[in-house]
Amino acid sequence: MAEDSAQDAFVTAWMKLNTLSEPSKFGSWVCRIAKNCALSTVRRYRGIVPLDQLENYEITNIECISPEEEYVAKEEKGEVRNSLEKLPQKVKKIIQLYYFEGLSVFEIAKQMGISEGTVKWQLNDGRKRMRKELCAMNEKWNDTLVEKVMKKVEELKLWRLKNSKDGFEVVYKDVLKEVENLPESNGKYHALADVLHSGWWWIPGTKSDELFERIKEASLKGKNEEVMEFILAREKSQIYGNVREKLILEKNIPLLEKHGFKKALATEYFLLGYYYYESGMKEKGAEAITKARALLSPTDEKYYLSSCVKDMFDKKENELKDKDSKNYGIGTTIEKYRYIDGVLRFWNNDAIGEGYIHSFDEKANDIYRNASFCDGYFFGNLELGETYVGSDKTTLTFISEGETVQTPAGIFDNCKVYKIKHFTKCGERIYTNYYKEGVGIVKCISQVGGLTEERLLKSYRIKGGYGLIPMVKGNTWEYTTNYNPEYLDIKIEYSVEYSDADTVILKLNTETLRSGYDKNSFVDMIQAVRNEYYYEQNGKERLNDVSEYIIRAKELAKTEIEKVHARMSGSCADRIYAGKYKDTFTGHWDFFEKETVTKEKGSFKLSGDYRWSFEWKNTDSSNAGTAILFNDIYGILDTATGCVWNDEWQKGASPTVEYMLWDSYPVKTSIKCEDGGTVETKSGVFESCLKISLDISGLGGGMSYREGHKEYYFAEGIGIVRMVNEYCNGALNAVYDLVSYKGTGEGYMPFANGLERRYEATNLTDGYVAGAEYVYVENENGEIVVFSDRTGIRNKQSPITSYSEILNEFKENNECNSIEEAHEMYALNTFNLMVHTICRPAHHRNNAPRSIGVCKFNMEMMENFGGGTVPDAWICAYAWTSLVRSAAHFGNGETEEGFKYLDIAFGFYEKWKNIKTGEELDTGNISIFGGIKLIKGKECIVLPNKEKAPIEYGYRMDGKCNAPYYALSADYGWEWFNYLRGNESYYSYIDKSKELMK
């Protein structure tokens, strides 16, 4: 009660600070407010707390409040009401009941059907939010303006503690405005960098080159170490191979030394050392790591990581040198925890690691991080049976005490048990943690996707500390698992590396080695299929025959979910490897996924888990082959809208969805819901369908096929019955129809146990076959799991040696109804042949003289199309060919010619960049091409009769201006540019290539 009263007094005093005319009387003024708050608290609790147990309290005080105090109380309520409207609905209701209706915590809990602990948490959260609205938590009445704003910035950074950032944007805008209005100083820019950096991560759709440059400028002016680390990390992420080392040595380190950065400089030396170790240059690596550690302090994560790098690479090169990297994992994670208001909470982490093992639940090893997943809390201030609901609906529950736990480290009695339910993109994860006073976590049970794993305390050493997690330097814990070490050996070691009144540094070392798969374990057989279907050889991925694992998994499957998993994953793996089908088809776009259905506010989502999913991609650039890319029927809808169904999708609705996908793609989708009429497919006739039209933007690169116009037709009780994908700017459509189904449900997109849906693409050419099968199964947690097996193959055809047998030439020779139509077909076919000649791979990567000759021929041909100048339609292809020719000249030792054609490439890419999207571009020689125009940015052409037609090699003819940057920074494939990479002019070209991409 005393803490609640103090909190209320602070809020009230802050609200009335501007009414205090005599600052010298601040102390007595606050005391009067505190007294009123205390009296109000006693009133609320008088029914459940014996008043004779309270010290320094006279019951008569309750009835003898002065008129002045009555006035103050009324004023308090009025101002609280103003702030109340800005709170989340649930918090708002609790505050309403507590402050304005006078209910006790017990009464509110009973009325709302929630625990008293949740009421207390929400009351505390509400108070903090109201205080944050206009002042900082630790603001003092005599703080200067600058001090007040700086404290608000520090509080803004505390949002990292919340899993959900709902409501952050409002606070962010207010704090940003106040920082921008501060007088010029280094402190202002330090704070500005912090604020803008927070907005970059936590406000969807804000990422842009302009914002990035503003953050960088503020970081430099304010010498903000943390934000500068982010700046340099993002710049390095866009560069590949040994160019990173060159960037660090020649640009980053001099820049940081010039501006007096220390921690960011240490990070650059650390990464430089790590890259050297990866490249086998141990001495250089050790030298750089030593420099990094000398600049760091014991509260820096990389201070501890730096001491682990050498041991990790030694182990990789010795003990693990003959092991496949996907069957081992070694690494160190440094977890930082901070005491916030006296409570230990997760702050952040950093890690290094080698190996790519995915054949077990890696996240289950993060024992202490998992235990603090509820907004960073381990156990909070909960009573037995109480639950705290975090910002993202993660729950933390104190479920039991007095438990006895037997572990390899001994038997522990009187353990307290806390359960975390955390919702991730992979579905719900449940962690049940057993704490022993003075020891720590002695047992952790992890449940995800219907599987349960255990981590048990194997040994420990407690040098000091108290409580459920004694965090004193030198304390260590080692854990074991419930896996059979004959097949999977896992070592988990935690140690407290640093601790003081503010910070705890926890180090986690893990070593995992997969030696085989247990043929009596269904999970192991499924994992063998998922992880062993391919291997790497000479830098290339090769396919494995995993049929023995498929057969065994089917034999071991007992439950319905296991049977479906074995059948569908086996089907996909069989198709990928082909095996006995090698003479029948080739695999190109095949996927298996296991996803869990989650629902939130009427929105249904599918959450996948990479542990089970696998794929094989081997596509060409043809338009015929593009049609198979759309077999991810549910996934494309989810990418476009953030879900696979939303109850708001009703006829007449037209919402717009905007969000940031994977922190990389600013997705924006315009949705139109209308009457879809009757749809007929092989599976039946569906009336009164709902048509959902999507216009999707913001995706690029390998995700660009998911952009553009899509149409989904939903039938009541069935779900999706047809999907239409426009591509080549509407010149072509890929249509997927429902061809069979099992079971029905409620609504336009039912999710229920036992449903099955199978789709096939219609009217595909060139032997392509595509489709998708979805099967719904309920798991042991009552969740609906959706298995998908998506097909993208090509039937092998009889050999064709005559171009006249190709479809369009066949039409030209046999199906044209007039000379004029034949002329148009001739022009179209000739254009396509020229594109094919100029843009198809020439297989001259390792022969520089031949590459020069091929590029020279193609460039001269494009110049001839315009009578000596390059027509606009060919500019992008000409720029690309110049880039390749430049690399070949460098590779042939002709540096002068190399620079010449590199400059030509940049010049033509600049021309291409300046042409507006949608502009119709001349293809040249009208006698040959008949007036065909290329539409910029649409990967299609328009014929003289105004019809549109697709083009092949659209990525080359109608590409983007990122090719120079990729070529100059690529890790491999562009080694001919190595001369340039060692030249002092290299960064000028890198900067020019970045400008092209803006």
Task: Compose a concise summary of this entry.
With 998 residues, the protein is an alpha+beta fold.
Describe the structure.
The protein is of the alpha+beta class and 998 residues long. The protein contains 33 helices and 31 strands. Strand 7 and strand 8 (451-461) form a beta hairpin. Helix 1 crosses helix 2 and helix 19 (522-532) packs parallel to helix 21. The chain starts with a helix and ends with a helix. The model is unreliable at 43-77 (pLDDT under 50).
How are the SSEs ordered, and which strands pair?
Elements: H1 2-15, H2 26-45, H3 60-63, H4 67-84, H5 89-100, H6 105-112, H7 116-134, H8 145-157, H9 168-180, H10 186-202, H11 209-222, H12 225-237, H13 243-259, H14 263-278, H15 282-295, H16 301-305, H17 309-317, E1 328-340, E2 343-354, H18 367-371, E3 387-389, E4 395-407, E5 410-424, E6 427-436, E7 440-448, E8 451-461, E9 476-481, E10 488-499, E11 503-514, H19 522-532, E12 534-537, E13 540-543, H20 547-556, H21 560-577, E14 585-587, E15 589-600, E16 603-608, E17 614-617, H22 623-626, H23 633-641, E18 645-646, E19 656-661, E20 665-681, E21 684-697, E22 708-715, E23 719-727, E24 732-742, E25 756-762, E26 768-778, E27 784-795, H24 807-814, H25 819-839, H26 848-865, H27 875-891, H28 895-914, E28 920-922, H29 926-929, E29 933-935, E30 940-942, E31 948-950, H30 954-957, H31 963-969, H32 978-981, H33 986-997
Antiparallel strand pairs: 1-2, 1-11, 3-4, 4-5, 5-6, 6-7, 7-8, 8-9, 9-10, 10-11, 12-13, 14-27, 15-16, 15-17, 15-27, 16-18, 19-20, 20-21, 21-22, 22-23, 23-24, 24-25, 25-26, 26-27, 28-29, 29-30, 30-31
